[in-house]
Amino acid sequence: MHAGGEIPVEKLEHIRPKLLPPPFVMEHEQATRAAPRVVEFTMTIEEKEVVIDEENGTTLQAMTFNGSMPGPTMVVHEGDYLQLTLINPATNTQQHNIDFHASTGALGGGELTHVNPGEQVTLRFKATRSGTFVYHCAPPNMVPWHVVSGMSGAVMVLPRDGLKDENGRPLRYDRVYTVGEFDLYIPKDENGNYKKYGTALEGYGDMTAVMNGLIPTHVVFNGKVGALTGANAMKAKVGETVLIIHSSANRDTRPHMIGGHGDYVWELGKFSNPPALNLETWFIRGGSAGAALYTFRQPGIYAYLNHNLIEAFNLGAAGHFKVEGKWDDDLMKQISAPGPIRA
Description:
37% strand, six-stranded mixed β-sheet, five-stranded mixed β-sheet
């Protein structure tokens, strides 16, 4: 036994949960009575072309964790060990690594996870702080390019006894979704059309020039305009409580749900702090992930967006919740329909 009665990490149980592509989140216990465990994950880096705006066919030579933007959300409990095997296939062209904001030491693991094409590496760290945290690629001299090309995601470290309100009472959720916000910088040609490239490296110089102007051409949720709308809307039912994990690896953002609220919001993403209550809009610092709980009370379509409305409506930072259930006239009722002005 270690000091304090802790079990040596070599003797802990190992589990291997299945990661899911966002907005979905892997199955997990919200609270656990189990002893700390080693939670093993495997992620493969995919460099590939993705369509970020289907309406006009705009593409990005993306670099991704497991093929999605954002990468999968990994969930562990405080005191667990998160163990990741990171694979960089020989078909890729770039060196990659991973910086876990949830970890301690060695540049968040970035210093210990440099993998060239055709290599893999395994890193383990102890989850000593609860909350939501960003992870991202951070190769030497190319960190911004890799991050705004798709390489970020979130880790959620839950307290072993679950989430609590401001008075220490348990909070639970029925569904959980991840929203990853990305600022993208797509170069244009001399005619004002968005350019396409055969590989990420081919467009590096042009993209860097746009990035250095600090004005994104697109600001999107989960990799493209409309990724979370229409048939891809996040689903819920009246009476269900939904936990929303919102990550933004590079720029500040201001999430807002039109027609709803943040019942409980961890703006800073750290569950050891009491949640803020009943927020209309909350703030997520660039380089962090926050969390919000909301219990839906009415059916319909709820727009969930960055309340920089220019970025939401003109650049793409918006999604939808589609909620089923019975309408409550006490909460809202149209008393009279639009019609001629009465004398």
